[in-house]
Task: structure prediction
Amino acid sequence: MKIEILPKNENDAIQKEIISKIRDYINYKNLEPGDKLPSERKLSENFGVSRSSVREAIQTLEFYGLLKSKPQSGTFVADIGSVALNGMISDILRLEKPDFKSLVETRILLELKTVRLAALRRSKEELKEIEEALEAYATKVMSGEDAVQEDLLFHLAIAKASGNSTINTFMLTITPEIITNFTKYHVCDKNIAFIGIQEHRDIYEAIKKQDPQLAKEKMKVHFKMLYQYCYNIKD
Amino acid sequence: MKIEILPKNENDAIQKEIISKIRDYINYKNLEPGDKLPSERKLSENFGVSRSSVREAIQTLEFYGLLKSKPQSGTFVADIGSVALNGMISDILRLEKPDFKSLVETRILLELKTVRLAALRRSKEELKEIEEALEAYATKVMSGEDAVQEDLLFHLAIAKASGNSTINTFMLTITPEIITNFTKYHVCDKNIAFIGIQEHRDIYEAIKKQDPQLAKEKMKVHFKMLYQYCYNIKD
DNA sequence: TTTCTTAAATTGGTTAACCAGATTGGTTTT
DNA sequence: AAAACCAATCTGGTTAACCAATTTAAGAAA
Result:
């Protein structure tokens, strides 16, 4: 059993450096929204790194909506001003992997909203998808198997029915990490899972009845143990 | 003035196809959490696409936490089960660019939380950063200039002080789009911006006093016009 | 048989050359 | 002078060859 100093992913560090250089370039040249960046070739030459490294850095900044590259044309600064651009890049460079506590805290916040919206807005098709996810979860639990995945898919079905694509996306991004940690720390033991079936069913019924307040209450009940867990785990 | 059928970015479509094929492969081979995918070369050969296309698709899936590639070793399936993996990839493939309405709705949700948390948890340094952002905003407005960026940076400073890295990241991802739309639709006209100064100051004071309830109330006041706007704009 | 050594094969990352479409600037045409 | 044309150039995207670190398995040593 060797003690590892965390590898401190070297590649991430390189990419952050490139992103930082792109920001410096934009500032130095006073590029404004819609302006074109130099070609990938010139940037890579300029920075002394490979073109694919530059491309990856650009892809990351595209993901955050700060750049937009058009084929056979160029890479362009997004329609936000330089102040916001600088502030956001600084924040992106400083970003660290979210801690589990903040993940759970955020999940609760998001889901208390999605469940209300789902009750208000769900279509018949979306309701059916939620029901199918519910049944899949119940079946898995009754057969005595671990059902963390089916649990989360039920919640994702609700997020999808909320009609808010942004929250839906956010739920998607935090779910893998949630599943990993739940499995690792055995947050959802089998005895708890049995209770979970009824709690899920209550949530489903509230959404079916289109009662947002009730849905939120039932979700709160469902999160009760999660609340405690969230505020007791060690950082 | 030509009417454009939206270009329907071809590259995105190709990447989605590759992601779909990766999912199919994982299912066909019944790969489980931690299992290794074939090398990028074999995948690209298998799919009949370039290796860099495969790499980009993998990078996207890495971003969502579904894959993890290790240098000189291989690409591995994340520690989530096949059910969740399939569900999430399906959702990712179906993701569309968030509509403005959902962005604003989500922003309000997130910020009513960050402002409470910031009041509870902010350090002296973070309080000072919020104050600086406030002053920068006020100065810009008083000089009669557009201050959408400084406005959002004030809110981002609060998000940073919330101590919740997940919400902070989410705020970062939606901010550029918010700025773009606010600028485009002139949501924050100059006369409104003047009122905004005092509203910002009220929020700042509540955070300074470490009064989460007051902070939330002041943020609600600040969002009042946004509420209306959010529920009146055309889709 | 088990353990250690070591060299060949495999890996993700990098580099450089190539492609087709977009851009550009000078030329021709009107 | 202004519009239309066209070829040279530049662009992001793709491909293929290369690199160094890692993994592997075959063989030597115990």
